[in-house]
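ok so for the tutorial part 2 we go from a plain amino acid sequence to predicted structure tokens. step 1 is just haveing the sequence, like this:
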Amino acid sequence: MSSLTLQVNELIKRIKSLEELLVQKGIAIDKANRQNKALGKLVSGKKSERQEKNPQDSMTQEEFDKKKTEQAEKRKARKNNG
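step 2 — the prediction. this is what the tokens look like for a chain of 82 residues:
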């Protein structure tokens, strides 16, 4: 009976170590995929969504100020002023 228990414990240890290796390998693969994506963007010259959405470049100063005041009014309207 004790030999079976020892075998089970040994197999459990092996399974845990294999699971840890799989997790580490998955993390490494995810990291490599992110790096490949970033390098692909650099090579292709594409801009990220944040870089493309720059409101100051596409709006006049007057439009930008108007949008800013509208946003401030919306924030003020959301508050509980009693």
